[in-house]
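ARCHIVE CARD
CATEGORY: sequence design from structure
SOURCE FIELD: tokenized fold
FIELD CONTENT:
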């Protein structure tokens, strides 16, 4: 029971962090139709910005300033990059963001080096909040979950209850009507892209010190983010939330389970020796297969439900 509860809490906290990262990409795609390959790079620079700011004025100011800086970078990218290549179609947009990811990574190498930086959990959040059976649960994990849930509520209220949210949704379906009413649609899309980038930056701020801040962090989470978007449904924020929790819990449990098909068959009274067909496959443990499971889930989703869990539009 202790293993189940602690793994479930860890899976939920990791899933909520993944949702914070994938939410920005989902919003950008649903509003603009742009699949941003550099989205995880904004997560990375959010962590590095937070590290740099926290060394001077502390973690709490960095929690606010770093996402705003990342959002500003995102708006500049949309205004002077994506908007220019948009007229050449989606392939040009994909190639632009693909190249941008490499450009950001090399910039990080030049500024902060190729090794990890000492971006740590702040002392006020470094400790245990409660003890479950014999395991102490850290405060920072709960803080991560609180920030993620607050962000989800904020996004929902902004898109459904605020005037800017109504303008954004109207600009998606009726851009000419919105322009007739006096709104600058390109500016709205620039703000959307900047907001999605800021969400990725926020995920970097709270995830960079929980895990590790180093130049390979974007490549580590980038593919998982696209898996979440596909499994949840392209453009579906609710689907991304469900998929994030599902993949977070799936990976957390799978890395801790050191069982193989050989063990399963042995419990059923079937012995599989080293000379059996595909013996190496049967001897593969769940923990060894853990990195592959999200992609297996994506493949199965594409086969049986191409639109994802709650998707309403094709990719």
């Amino acid at each position: 029971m202790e293993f189940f509860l602690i793994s479930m809490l860890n899976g939920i906290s990791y899933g909520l962090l993944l949702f914070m990262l994938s939410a920005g990409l989902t919003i950008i795609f649903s509003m603009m139709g742009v699949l941003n390959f550099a989205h995880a790079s904004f997560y990375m620079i959010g962590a590095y910005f937070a590290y740099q700011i926290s060394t001077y004025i502390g973690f709490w100011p960095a929690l606010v300033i770093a996402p705003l800086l990342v959002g500003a970078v995102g708006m500049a990218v949309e205004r002077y990059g994506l908007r220019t290549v948009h007229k050449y179609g989606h392939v040009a947009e994909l190639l632009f963001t693909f190249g941008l990811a490499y450009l950001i990574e090399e910039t990080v190498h030049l500024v902060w080096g190729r090794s990890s930086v000492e971006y740590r959990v702040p002392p006020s959040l470094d400790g245990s909040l409660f003890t479950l059976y014999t395991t102490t649960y850290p405060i920072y994990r709960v803080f991560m979950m609180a920030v993620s849930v607050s962000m989800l509520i904020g996004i929902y209220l902004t898109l459904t209850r605020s005037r800017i949210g109504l303008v954004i949704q109207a600009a998606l379906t009726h851009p000419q009507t919105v322009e007739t009413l006096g709104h600058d649609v390109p500016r709205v899309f620039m703000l959307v892209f900047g907001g999605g980038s800021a969400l990725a930056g926020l995920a970097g701020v709270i995830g960079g010190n929980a895990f590790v801040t180093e130049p390979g962090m974007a490549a580590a989470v980038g593919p998982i983010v696209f898996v979440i978007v596909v499994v949840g449904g392209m453009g579906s924020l609710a689907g991304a939330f469900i998929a994030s929790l599902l993949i977070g819990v799936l990976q957390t449990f799978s890395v801790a389970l050191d069982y193989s098909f050989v063990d399963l068959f042995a419990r059923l009274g079937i012995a599989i020796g080293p000379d059996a067909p595909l013996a190496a496959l049967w001897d593969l443990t769940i923990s060894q297969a853990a990195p592959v499971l999200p992609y297996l889930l994506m493949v199965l989703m594409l086969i049986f439900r191409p639109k994802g869990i709650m998707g309403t539009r094709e990719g």
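CARD ANNOTATION: The chain has one domain: 2-258+289-304. Residues 20 and 222 are 13 Å apart (CA to CA).
SHELF: design records, drawer C
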